[in-house]
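Appendix B, record 7
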Amino acid sequence: MPFSAWDAFLRTVFFYFFLLLMVRLTGKHSVGRLSPFDFVVTIMLAETATMAIEDQSKPLAAGVVPIVTLVGLEIALAYVMLKVPWLRPWISDRPTVVIRHGRIDEQALRRLRFNLDDLMEELRLKNVTSVQDVEYAVWERSGEFSVVLRPPAQPLRPVDLGLEGTAGGLPIVLVEDGRWNRSGLKAAGVDHRRLEQRLEAEGVRVRDVLLVTVNQGGEVFVQLKQRAGGGQHRLQLDPEG
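C-alpha coordinates (predicted):
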Protein backbone atom coordinates (compact mmCIF):
# COMPACT_ATOMS: atom_id res chain seq x y z
CA MET A 1 0.00 0.00 0.00
CA PRO A 2 1.55 3.36 -1.01
CA PHE A 3 2.30 5.91 1.67
CA SER A 4 -0.45 8.47 2.23
CA ALA A 5 0.43 11.63 4.12
CA TRP A 6 -3.24 12.29 4.75
CA ASP A 7 -3.78 8.81 6.19
CA ALA A 8 -0.69 9.21 8.42
CA PHE A 9 -1.99 12.57 9.62
CA LEU A 10 -5.42 11.16 10.47
CA ARG A 11 -3.90 8.14 12.25
CA THR A 12 -1.63 10.41 14.29
CA VAL A 13 -4.53 12.64 15.36
CA PHE A 14 -6.67 9.61 16.18
CA PHE A 15 -4.05 7.88 18.33
CA TYR A 16 -3.09 11.15 20.03
CA PHE A 17 -6.59 11.61 21.43
CA PHE A 18 -7.11 7.88 21.88
CA LEU A 19 -3.93 7.48 23.98
CA LEU A 20 -4.79 10.63 25.92
CA LEU A 21 -8.13 9.06 26.82
CA MET A 22 -6.50 5.74 27.75
CA VAL A 23 -3.92 7.41 30.00
CA ARG A 24 -6.69 9.39 31.70
CA LEU A 25 -8.56 6.14 32.35
CA THR A 26 -5.57 4.71 34.21
CA GLY A 27 -5.98 7.49 36.80
CA LYS A 28 -2.34 8.61 36.68
CA HIS A 29 -1.98 12.30 37.51
CA SER A 30 1.74 12.62 36.86
CA VAL A 31 3.66 10.80 34.16
CA GLY A 32 6.90 11.52 36.02
CA ARG A 33 5.89 9.29 38.96
CA LEU A 34 5.84 5.82 37.47
CA SER A 35 6.18 2.43 39.11
CA PRO A 36 8.08 -0.22 37.11
CA PHE A 37 4.76 -1.62 35.86
CA ASP A 38 3.51 1.85 34.86
CA PHE A 39 6.78 2.50 33.04
CA VAL A 40 6.51 -0.74 31.06
CA VAL A 41 2.89 0.01 30.13
CA THR A 42 3.82 3.55 29.03
CA ILE A 43 6.62 2.28 26.78
CA MET A 44 4.38 -0.40 25.28
CA LEU A 45 1.59 2.11 24.64
CA ALA A 46 3.98 4.44 22.85
CA GLU A 47 5.50 1.64 20.76
CA THR A 48 2.10 0.19 19.84
CA ALA A 49 0.75 3.57 18.78
CA THR A 50 3.89 4.30 16.72
CA MET A 51 3.63 1.03 14.79
CA ALA A 52 -0.09 1.55 14.19
CA ILE A 53 0.52 5.06 12.85
CA GLU A 54 3.43 4.12 10.59
CA ASP A 55 2.15 0.81 9.22
CA GLN A 56 -0.79 1.90 7.11
CA SER A 57 -1.27 -1.61 5.74
CA LYS A 58 -2.85 -2.65 9.04
CA PRO A 59 -6.33 -1.60 10.17
CA LEU A 60 -6.79 0.73 13.13
CA ALA A 61 -8.04 -2.21 15.18
CA ALA A 62 -4.52 -3.68 15.07
CA GLY A 63 -3.41 -0.76 17.24
CA VAL A 64 -6.59 -0.16 19.23
CA VAL A 65 -6.96 -3.71 20.61
CA PRO A 66 -3.44 -3.93 22.17
CA ILE A 67 -3.78 -0.44 23.67
CA VAL A 68 -7.17 -1.21 25.21
CA THR A 69 -5.74 -4.50 26.53
CA LEU A 70 -2.78 -2.76 28.17
CA VAL A 71 -4.96 -0.11 29.78
CA GLY A 72 -7.37 -2.81 30.96
CA LEU A 73 -4.48 -4.68 32.58
CA GLU A 74 -3.31 -1.49 34.28
CA ILE A 75 -6.76 -0.76 35.71
CA ALA A 76 -7.29 -4.40 36.76
CA LEU A 77 -3.92 -4.56 38.51
CA ALA A 78 -4.60 -1.27 40.31
CA TYR A 79 -7.88 -2.73 41.59
CA VAL A 80 -6.19 -5.97 42.70
CA MET A 81 -3.52 -3.97 44.56
CA LEU A 82 -6.28 -2.00 46.28
CA LYS A 83 -7.97 -5.15 47.54
CA VAL A 84 -4.88 -7.35 48.11
CA PRO A 85 -2.39 -5.29 50.19
CA TRP A 86 0.29 -8.02 50.36
CA LEU A 87 0.64 -7.86 46.57
CA ARG A 88 1.63 -4.17 46.50
CA PRO A 89 5.32 -4.57 47.43
CA TRP A 90 5.79 -6.98 44.51
CA ILE A 91 4.45 -4.40 42.07
CA SER A 92 5.45 -1.00 43.43
CA ASP A 93 7.87 -1.85 46.26
CA ARG A 94 7.72 -0.44 49.80
CA PRO A 95 8.75 2.98 51.10
CA THR A 96 12.40 2.72 52.18
CA VAL A 97 13.78 4.54 55.23
CA VAL A 98 17.28 5.75 54.34
CA ILE A 99 17.89 7.93 57.42
CA ARG A 100 16.64 7.01 60.88
CA HIS A 101 17.27 9.17 63.96
CA GLY A 102 20.07 11.05 62.21
CA ARG A 103 21.89 7.92 61.02
CA ILE A 104 22.21 6.84 57.39
CA ASP A 105 21.11 3.29 56.61
CA GLU A 106 23.84 2.03 54.28
CA GLN A 107 21.99 -1.18 53.41
CA ALA A 108 18.94 0.83 52.34
CA LEU A 109 21.13 2.99 50.10
CA ARG A 110 22.62 -0.11 48.48
CA ARG A 111 19.18 -1.60 47.86
CA LEU A 112 18.11 1.63 46.17
CA ARG A 113 21.44 1.92 44.31
CA PHE A 114 21.69 5.36 45.87
CA ASN A 115 25.05 6.99 46.55
CA LEU A 116 25.81 9.64 49.16
CA ASP A 117 25.89 12.41 46.56
CA ASP A 118 22.34 11.48 45.53
CA LEU A 119 21.25 11.46 49.17
CA MET A 120 22.77 14.86 49.97
CA GLU A 121 21.22 16.33 46.83
CA GLU A 122 17.77 15.13 47.89
CA LEU A 123 18.28 16.61 51.35
CA ARG A 124 19.33 19.97 49.89
CA LEU A 125 16.20 19.99 47.75
CA LYS A 126 14.27 19.71 51.03
CA ASN A 127 16.28 22.61 52.52
CA VAL A 128 18.11 20.24 54.87
CA THR A 129 21.85 20.77 55.25
CA SER A 130 22.74 18.26 57.96
CA VAL A 131 21.97 14.55 58.22
CA GLN A 132 21.91 14.94 62.00
CA ASP A 133 18.85 17.18 61.69
CA VAL A 134 16.83 14.35 60.13
CA GLU A 135 14.57 12.11 62.20
CA TYR A 136 13.40 10.11 59.17
CA ALA A 137 14.16 10.33 55.47
CA VAL A 138 12.06 8.04 53.30
CA TRP A 139 12.29 7.15 49.63
CA GLU A 140 8.61 6.82 48.73
CA ARG A 141 7.04 4.47 46.21
CA SER A 142 6.18 7.47 44.03
CA GLY A 143 9.92 8.07 43.52
CA GLU A 144 9.94 11.14 45.75
CA PHE A 145 11.94 11.85 48.89
CA SER A 146 10.20 12.80 52.14
CA VAL A 147 11.94 14.14 55.24
CA VAL A 148 10.83 14.45 58.88
CA LEU A 149 13.11 16.73 60.89
CA ARG A 150 14.20 16.08 64.45
CA PRO A 151 12.44 18.30 67.02
CA PRO A 152 15.36 20.76 67.56
CA ALA A 153 15.57 21.36 63.80
CA GLN A 154 11.86 21.79 63.20
CA PRO A 155 10.31 25.21 62.56
CA LEU A 156 8.39 26.88 65.36
CA ARG A 157 5.08 25.11 65.96
CA PRO A 158 1.94 26.01 67.92
CA VAL A 159 2.90 23.47 70.60
CA ASP A 160 6.14 25.41 71.18
CA LEU A 161 4.01 28.39 72.19
CA GLY A 162 1.99 26.37 74.65
CA LEU A 163 -0.85 25.81 72.20
CA GLU A 164 -2.49 22.45 71.64
CA GLY A 165 -0.51 20.23 69.29
CA THR A 166 0.05 16.62 68.33
CA ALA A 167 3.03 14.30 68.65
CA GLY A 168 5.39 13.90 65.71
CA GLY A 169 7.08 10.91 64.13
CA LEU A 170 6.04 8.69 61.27
CA PRO A 171 2.43 7.47 61.55
CA ILE A 172 1.92 3.71 61.48
CA VAL A 173 -1.03 2.24 59.61
CA LEU A 174 -3.12 -0.05 61.83
CA VAL A 175 -6.22 -0.54 59.68
CA GLU A 176 -6.46 -0.13 55.93
CA ASP A 177 -9.67 -0.46 53.92
CA GLY A 178 -11.44 -2.36 56.69
CA ARG A 179 -8.57 -4.82 57.27
CA TRP A 180 -6.10 -5.08 60.14
CA ASN A 181 -2.50 -4.31 59.19
CA ARG A 182 -0.72 -7.00 61.22
CA SER A 183 2.78 -5.67 60.57
CA GLY A 184 1.69 -2.17 61.61
CA LEU A 185 0.04 -3.44 64.79
CA LYS A 186 3.21 -5.31 65.69
CA ALA A 187 5.46 -2.32 64.95
CA ALA A 188 3.29 -0.03 67.08
CA GLY A 189 2.86 -2.59 69.86
CA VAL A 190 -0.92 -2.27 69.66
CA ASP A 191 -3.34 -5.06 70.60
CA HIS A 192 -5.99 -5.12 67.89
CA ARG A 193 -8.62 -6.38 70.33
CA ARG A 194 -8.13 -3.41 72.67
CA LEU A 195 -8.15 -1.03 69.72
CA GLU A 196 -11.31 -2.62 68.36
CA GLN A 197 -12.97 -2.08 71.74
CA ARG A 198 -11.96 1.60 71.68
CA LEU A 199 -13.35 1.97 68.17
CA GLU A 200 -16.62 0.28 69.10
CA ALA A 201 -16.92 2.64 72.07
CA GLU A 202 -16.86 5.45 69.49
CA GLY A 203 -19.50 3.66 67.43
CA VAL A 204 -16.98 2.65 64.77
CA ARG A 205 -16.82 -0.80 63.17
CA VAL A 206 -13.54 -1.94 61.67
CA ARG A 207 -15.16 -2.91 58.37
CA ASP A 208 -16.39 0.69 58.00
CA VAL A 209 -12.89 2.14 58.42
CA LEU A 210 -10.85 3.45 55.50
CA LEU A 211 -7.70 4.24 57.49
CA VAL A 212 -6.45 4.10 61.08
CA THR A 213 -2.98 5.41 61.98
CA VAL A 214 -1.14 5.95 65.25
CA ASN A 215 1.80 8.28 65.92
CA GLN A 216 4.60 8.05 68.47
CA GLY A 217 2.49 9.83 71.07
CA GLY A 218 -0.21 7.18 70.92
CA GLU A 219 -2.64 9.48 69.11
CA VAL A 220 -4.91 7.54 66.78
CA PHE A 221 -6.46 9.02 63.65
CA VAL A 222 -9.53 7.29 62.18
CA GLN A 223 -11.02 7.99 58.75
CA LEU A 224 -14.29 6.24 57.88
CA LYS A 225 -15.29 5.07 54.42
CA GLN A 226 -17.69 7.24 52.47
CA ARG A 227 -20.45 4.65 52.77
CA ALA A 228 -20.11 4.99 56.58
CA GLY A 229 -20.35 8.77 56.45
CA GLY A 230 -16.68 9.60 55.84
CA GLY A 231 -16.27 10.99 59.35
CA GLN A 232 -13.03 11.32 61.30
CA HIS A 233 -12.17 10.44 64.88
CA ARG A 234 -9.15 11.01 67.09
CA LEU A 235 -8.34 8.74 70.02
CA GLN A 236 -5.57 8.49 72.59
CA LEU A 237 -4.17 5.03 73.28
CA ASP A 238 -3.07 4.18 76.78
CA PRO A 239 0.54 2.95 77.24
CA GLU A 240 -0.61 -0.67 77.23
CA GLY A 241 -2.03 -0.31 73.68
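Remarks on this record: The chain has three domains: 5-89, 94-155, 172-236. The mean pLDDT is 79.
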